[in-house]
Amino acid sequence: MTEAASQFALAYFAVFSRFAGCLMLMPGFSSQRVAMRIRLWITIALTLALGPLVYPAVGQAAAGRNTIGIATLIISETFIGILFGLTARLILAAVEMAGTTIASLIGFGGLPGAPVDGTEPVPALSALITVTATMLFFVTGLHLLALEGLVETYRIFPPGAGLDPGRALTIVADQLSATLFLTGKII
Fold first, then answer.
1. C-beta neighbour count of 144 within 10 angstroms
2. Is the predicted pLDDT of residue 41 greater than 90, yes or no?
3. C-beta of residue 100 within 8 angstroms of C-beta of residue 123
4. Backbone Cα Rg of the chain
5. How large is the angle between the packed helices 3-23 and 67-105, nearest 10 degrees?
6. Are residues 87 and 25 in contact, defined by beta-carbon separation less than 8 angstroms?
7. pTM
């Protein structure tokens, strides 16, 4: 394999790593009701479709790396994707928590229902609210906005720069704060 081909493959694998990290936590895409192979093909398709948009930045970051540099690039790209997917997951967690609280307040908290994304039973009203929120996520086109935001993460977190743990923790804490505020507003 030539140097240019291996750099191209490494760059697209780095893009795949960030997208896979995000989609394994993104609401709707990460549901256990979606087969693992389907999730893999969705990630591959998104990598091939959106990869040319971010290839210049990723290709430059992938150029001339040794084995440790390649591993660092792949791990940091995966963690950046996980960070973005986690912030979206926290919003759905707020909706589920609000649904559980509402079900408890009106006396339906003891009736277990099938969870949408998790494995533990939740009240049926909470499952209904979460399914509705997940459906609205796709019907209103918010999933496209989330994918646009995923591409935009390449501007916020340039490839190869690594993930600053303090900044990542600040982002998660701010999102968690906003999520709990949203839950309080819903209730």
1. 10
2. yes
3. yes
4. 19
5. 20
6. no
7. 0.82
Q: How many CB atoms lie within 10 A of CB 110?
A: 8
Q: Are 33 and 94 in contact (CB under 8 A)?
A: no
CB 61 within 8 A of CB 14: yes
Position 13, amino acid = F
Q: How far is it, in rounded angstroms, from Cα 65 to Cα 74?
A: 11
Handedness of CA 158, 160, 172, 35 (dihedral sign): positive
DSSP notation for the chain: --HHHHHHHHHHHHHHHHHHHHHTTSTTTT-TTS-HHHHHHHHHHHHHHHHHHHHHHHHHHHTT--HHHHHHHHHHHHHHHHHHHHHHHHHHHHHHHHHHHHHHHTT-TTSEE--SSSSS-EEHHHHHHHHHHHHHHHHTTHHHHHHHHHHHHHHHS-TTS---HHHHHHHHHHHHHHHHHHHHHH-
Those residues whose C-beta lies under 8 Å from the C-beta of residue 63, and which sit 6 or more positions away, are: 7
The rounded distance, in Å, linking the Cα atoms of 80 and 157 is: 8
Here the tokens at position 94 are 């707020």
Is 80 exceeded by the pLDDT of residue 47?
A: yes
Tens of pLDDT, residue by residue over 112-123, are 766 666 667 788
Contacts of 161 (CB under 8 A, 6+ apart): 61, 76
The 10 Å Cβ neighbour count of residue 125 is: 18
